[in-house]
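Translate sequence into structure tokens.
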Amino acid sequence: MKIIPIVPAPMTEVELALFEERRKIYPRSQKGWFSSWRWVLVFFTQILFYGGAWLHWNDRQAVLFDLTTRKFYIFGLVLWPQDFIYLAVLLVISALSLFLFTAIAGRLFCGYACPQTVYTEIFMWIEKKIEGDRNARIKLDDAPMSVRKFSLKSSKHLAWLALSLWTGFTFVGYFTPIHVLAQEVFAFTLGPWEYFWILFYGFATYGNAGFMREQVCKYMCPYARFQSAMFDKDTLIVTYDTARGEPRGSRNKKVDFKAEGLGSCVDCGICVQVCPTGIDIRNGLQYECIACGLCIDGCDQVMDKMAYPRGLIRYTTEHALERKLDNKSMWRRVFRLRTLIYGSILGLIILVAALSLAYHVPLKVDVMRDRSMPKVTDTGAIENVYRLQITNSHEEAHKYVISVKGAAGIEIVNQTEIEVAAASVIPFPVRVRIPAGAAEIGSNRIRFVIQDINVPKINVTEKAVFLVPK
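Result follows.
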């Protein structure tokens, strides 16, 4: 029997592409209008994040999501699990904002305010300060291991780890009072959950911003995949003007490039070198583009040196390029019916939510009827027992009076006044009596009215059922 060896088939181009190794990107530092705005957003978001946990309000942390007591403190507002509707509204506002801004100007959030973008920018700044600019980092990585290389790499990673752990500590500080958390850290008395989340969030920051970087944007972020559903030809995007730039080629500044049959692009590659995701914008719109605008800054500087007009790479729309629209016509099409509808709906929801918060009543009452059978007194009156869960979401103690309505002669036969401490919940038993014959047999609708004694406008009416036995 002849044995025929099995030779594996050669890998095709598609199979090779599936196993493509990551090419490390060394973004070049770039100054310009868009770069400055990126750093403005970096400072703004990080001042909010790191500083917000240390702000105080009414002798407590200004922003605190206390899961233990199930209270969410946001400056003067105290929210409870019953206020879940506000979280739903916040998510709706976020989704509509995403639709609106993407329809107008693409991935603005990705390029300027996304945590992945912000922390990657900070980590690259640390890398640049320790290892040097782009060329120095490339040479350092290509060089064999030495004392200098080891010390530079170690210093960089130690700085990254310190920032990552501080980020994890700050994140947990929004759920555990940060002053208490700091004392526990220095006393080594942290609980297991605090340890876990500080290390977990710190590790995520260190890994995503230090190592994965553009891989998160390209392969892990779902927004990159469905963004095209929100784009159209009137969406502002970072675009290379092919008609003006091609054919590209290097040339002397003094040469009449038009006479040589060349376009404005000098093929310097600056737009590729400054891109944090390593794409060539001259190949057209790509899902990896995060709309940071750094390629615009780089190209504009080259155009200035060559004494060419700026705007070879710019924020514009496909229709503006195809039809050679001026800025006025382009912006008129940007604010089209689609974006106006998004903006109107978003504005209406924000207005309603703001009014709801402005007129938010710091009193909530849940009424539960006792499961026991109604009691019949010696006079024939009927009594039902209820449990009122009274929540005072204000940061001051309040005194309330309780009354009941719904039938002739109905009354509360026990205490009707109660004081509830600041931001607390008290269960309060209530015995309700109806005289004999004043209500029909079976279920009868009644209403509890709970009113602040000192501030009458703070009041709540809750429905309940009064049972009359046969």
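Note: The two ends are 97 Å apart (CA to CA).
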